[in-house]
Automatic annotation (TrEMBL), chains A, B, C, D:
Its EC number is 4.2.1.51. It catalyses: prephenate + H(+) = 3-phenylpyruvate + CO2 + H2O. The lineage of its organism: Bacteria, Bacillati, Actinomycetota, Actinomycetes, Micrococcales. Gene3D superfamilies: 3.30.70.260, Periplasmic binding protein-like II (3.40.190.10). One of its GO terms (biological process) is L-phenylalanine biosynthetic process. Coiled coil: none annotated. GO terms for cellular component: cytoplasm. The record marks T185 as: Essential for prephenate dehydratase activity. It comes from Candidatus Rhodoluna planktonica. InterPro entries: ACT-like_dom_sf, ACT_dom, Chor_mutase/pphenate_deHydtase, Preph_deHydtase, Preph_deHydtase_CS. This is Prephenate dehydratase. Residues 13-192 form the Prephenate dehydratase domain. Pathway: Amino-acid biosynthesis; L-phenylalanine biosynthesis; phenylpyruvate from prephenate: step 1/1.
Amino acid sequence: MSPRASNTSAKKTYSYLGPEGTFTELALAQVAEAKGANHRSVAHVQEAIDDVISGRAFRAIIPVENSVEGGVSATADALAITENVRIYGEYLVPVTFDLVARPGTVLKDVRTVSTHPVAYAQTRAWLSANLSQHAHLPATSTAAAAAALLDNDFADAAVAAPTIVKHYGLKTLARNIGENKNAQTRFIQIGLAGPMPEPTGRDKTSVIVELPTDRPGALLEMLEQFAARGVNLSRIESRPIGDRLGRYRFNIDAQGHIADSAVSEALMGLHRFSPKVLFLGSYPRADKQKSVHEGNNSNVEFADAASWLKQLKAGK
Amino acid sequence: MSPRASNTSAKKTYSYLGPEGTFTELALAQVAEAKGANHRSVAHVQEAIDDVISGRAFRAIIPVENSVEGGVSATADALAITENVRIYGEYLVPVTFDLVARPGTVLKDVRTVSTHPVAYAQTRAWLSANLSQHAHLPATSTAAAAAALLDNDFADAAVAAPTIVKHYGLKTLARNIGENKNAQTRFIQIGLAGPMPEPTGRDKTSVIVELPTDRPGALLEMLEQFAARGVNLSRIESRPIGDRLGRYRFNIDAQGHIADSAVSEALMGLHRFSPKVLFLGSYPRADKQKSVHEGNNSNVEFADAASWLKQLKAGK
Amino acid sequence: MSPRASNTSAKKTYSYLGPEGTFTELALAQVAEAKGANHRSVAHVQEAIDDVISGRAFRAIIPVENSVEGGVSATADALAITENVRIYGEYLVPVTFDLVARPGTVLKDVRTVSTHPVAYAQTRAWLSANLSQHAHLPATSTAAAAAALLDNDFADAAVAAPTIVKHYGLKTLARNIGENKNAQTRFIQIGLAGPMPEPTGRDKTSVIVELPTDRPGALLEMLEQFAARGVNLSRIESRPIGDRLGRYRFNIDAQGHIADSAVSEALMGLHRFSPKVLFLGSYPRADKQKSVHEGNNSNVEFADAASWLKQLKAGK
Amino acid sequence: MSPRASNTSAKKTYSYLGPEGTFTELALAQVAEAKGANHRSVAHVQEAIDDVISGRAFRAIIPVENSVEGGVSATADALAITENVRIYGEYLVPVTFDLVARPGTVLKDVRTVSTHPVAYAQTRAWLSANLSQHAHLPATSTAAAAAALLDNDFADAAVAAPTIVKHYGLKTLARNIGENKNAQTRFIQIGLAGPMPEPTGRDKTSVIVELPTDRPGALLEMLEQFAARGVNLSRIESRPIGDRLGRYRFNIDAQGHIADSAVSEALMGLHRFSPKVLFLGSYPRADKQKSVHEGNNSNVEFADAASWLKQLKAGK
């Protein structure tokens, strides 16, 4: 067998925030091109990013936003200090929580509930009502909390994704105990910078923008870079830069693709305005909604304006 | 002894996010009027808020922002759904981390380090360099991680505030291991709505504002409510409303006091513009810097404009 | 008869930009309260303003805007340097022009046409087509041009309002020769500052605003004083301040009445922002259209916001 | 001599708003390339524009702005309806007025003063003080008023430029009688569209922009097209479009040259935003002041942003 054939047959690796049985695995299941590839479970977001940068993984699937708890700050902050990584797709996963325990445990026996703090926040109302005396043992993930039930007896039950019982010998004590029945988590597929997904008319562009220091109204000015080109934002989230209180960077999802003239001009505007702007990629929206640029900011209008300008410059 | 005398002599209670030995205790130590009062340690932010609402505590001290990890989302979200609570003061506490262990433990023996995830994020660089093989056991607070060292041997060391060794029989293995030597946490003092601190010229006003739905440019319009009155923002932080992805509320600290005309007009502007705006209070800035309203927006200018208007209306 | 009775029976005087037979007379005819009063024809706008200031006239009717030629700059500039004068009403007069001549003159005999430069601009197309060799003799008004035909033979014909033939022994050579068949002139009724017309929901407020010097974006900031309160402008016209090139004042008509909260707050905003703002009055719109304030800026919303603020300040 | 050689040697013609002896002639004297060319005096602004369009003149010099009286509306309106004409330069002329009369006339004999209405407005204060009983006879220009003194005796004196006595047998009765001693008139040189003056760093770009109909805040949006690219305006003047009251076009002078990236992007933004935008040219400023684009909007910053974008699009 030739090395070339060997290369061709080699499977690509997709890392994902594990362990097995977490919601991230459900996001990975939505990635068509990851079917039949290697799936590699990692312990935290930074490890997934490191896999991509080192080439150990072709791509990684990590959570980026949760409709209840907000931005997953570890992801936002890790991306902000990483060069050369891009987003290639986004995926929405409905978030439902079950209470699981070792076989033989019944609800009234539960004293200590282990789970990730985010999952705990989403189920605290149910737990307080049904287990008023329970204590919470934080875990690094819902799946880790469930798995640990089989390793030790620090906790009596775990809050985890319904699919967890497919992976571990646990039983479900209560279903769908989350407060918000419409909760979703948004995941992204990241990889090294490379050819971007083609524009589809239903796209999103993500950037991280720092504001000029000590300039009142800088946020307003930054937003006008989008508004002047009719580009709508679907998300804006502030994160502290971390060097001192009062300095923020903004994680922004704008409607449209870098191949759209309105978006590319807005990006250049940000680049001039901001001391640091990080482009994270253009990719199809998970909600499949159309990305419309307000006003007269279609590609055709941009092209018309450019040829008008060209004529003017030629003295016509 | 009359009941009245008894009432008068009864000490007020200040709840704080405990346990003893956390950074919140250092913030509480800055609250002059809490000297000699009862100090009540609570397990989480919601419990502190509940103490205030039920009257169990007169006031509570809770963390609100950390220069490294950003807004303490539990506080932001709890305040957003609470009526009738106000902020009465803010306090800055330098954040330095030590590594502590049971007496007899030496650095090279440490395999598992327990601490709160935020503290872990701030010390991971040092831990990775000096304890490359360590595992992290999350805890609900740095103090809880330290206290647990004396209860069980799940962890070998804890990352905690330097003062922790005053409360527990632990010894310090390494000092000041945090990445950011200027890190600070900002705490607030909350209480039931009542008379506000007097304006000092160095004040801050906090609000939580929801944006009108599905209106492109709504954030920009909201910011213009401040800009049109020359009011600068010292902090803006988005948090998901939680009913579905894509809906945000904004936690805002504006410079100035509700008694300042520029601020009160901006607040009324927000009230008209926003489907929901929550006033959290006006209180002196911890950094003691002057709160200047840009442009001609002093109280004197506002008063001049009001008497001019009055004259015009009187037909003069 | 007592002086007092005499005073009571004395008729009020309405000055108007004359002479008799101009369009201003048609505007005066729309002023209900001027029926049966003294009508005093004056030679120029400043004289009309002087009549009002000196008390010689109770009110004066002067042109302020012409849909073809723009602002009547003499009026705009005279008002800008006058204190204590207010606008009490506005009136729209359709502008149609006829060519008139001495009896016996026929069209082909006309060599020289006299009229006011504004009227000439509006009829030049017809005159060029029908009297290709004509010369233009400028006059101070269309009526003066017509009257002069009977005094001397410098001109053979005049362009004037159709009603001119009621005042002078002239005949009409051609009707409705203006280029723009929808042309209108807008007139205002001015008087000394005093009680304003009551708000009708269909009102207009006029101001003259200077911009702060040498501040890029000052015009934008000024417009935001209106926008932040949802007040729409129906007219904005720049005029040079006159001390040097590059300095402008803006004559602005905003929708709404000073009794509307949105308008009064915007006025106070202008007063703080601008080095000089002149209030010219609130009065019913001639076009009878409703003056809607954009967004949530009704009086009810303003009152709600004010009582909300009052409660907050009371510590509730 | 061949016709071709003849053509080559033929002098170019510069039309100017005459007659001889007006301020426009002083502007023409500032045009270096017009030295030794044919100078053609025309009767009104439209004739000058027609000369340029028909090719009768290579260029024309016309007044565009007067620091006392504002925009010369005939010029603004004529340019607004003309295609294919460009501004090639601007010139500032100090405006001083003298009172001139036929030899033998003394001041106290003067009953009727003839002059252009603009000049009359600027000298009315002096005339009222020194000739309290005088009448005003309007003329099409100051020079025409002066020339007519020798043709007929309708007027006894004329207000005109000091140089008028070089052209006509008149004598000066009083010097520098204008109210504003710093008055200036700004003139422009127009020609058919062709190669533009090179950028000098001290340039100006003129456009005429219509606003989208019935869109509150359209003026603000238009101004943001400049602001988002840091382009300052040195002049904005509204003129009625003329089809009905309430519709305006804006004559704008922006700092910078179409060859400056900030200006060209702003122009394209206007082209998309506005139903009609007319480019009048980029040319050196008469006041020789530097045209700075606010913020980070230099050509270098634009080029950096463009190459950054190019790299991003290439997937790097």
